[in-house]
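User: Show me a protein chain along with its predicted structure.
Assistant: Here is one chain, sequence first, then C-alpha cells.
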Amino acid sequence: QVQVVESGGGLVQPGGSLRLSCVVSGRTIRGQPIVWYRQAPGQEREWVGGSWMGNDYASFVKGRFKISRDNDKNTVYLQMNSLKPEDTAVYYCNFKDNWGQGTQVTVSL
C-alpha cells in the first residue's frame, strides 16, 4: 500500500524560504512521476509542479520553486524561495493517485 506524507510547512515572512518534503512508502519513486499541488482557502486545488523525466512548474512559481528528489530516500522536495502571501495554501504531494494529508504553508508578516 502506497503512503504519502508531506512535511516542512510553517509560517514564514514574505521573501522567506521553506523546503517541503514528500516521503513515499510502499513503492519506489525511482523513474516515476510525482507532483505537487496546493489548495488555498476557498480555492480549488491547483498544480504547482511535477518531477519525472525532468521538472516542470506552474508559471506562478517558476523561478522561485524547485523540485528535487532523493530516490534512495524515496523522498521528493519542494524548495520554495521568495515566498509571497499568495503562496499561502496547503501543499500536497501526489504519487500514483495517492495523496498525502498536506502541509500548511502560511506566508505573512
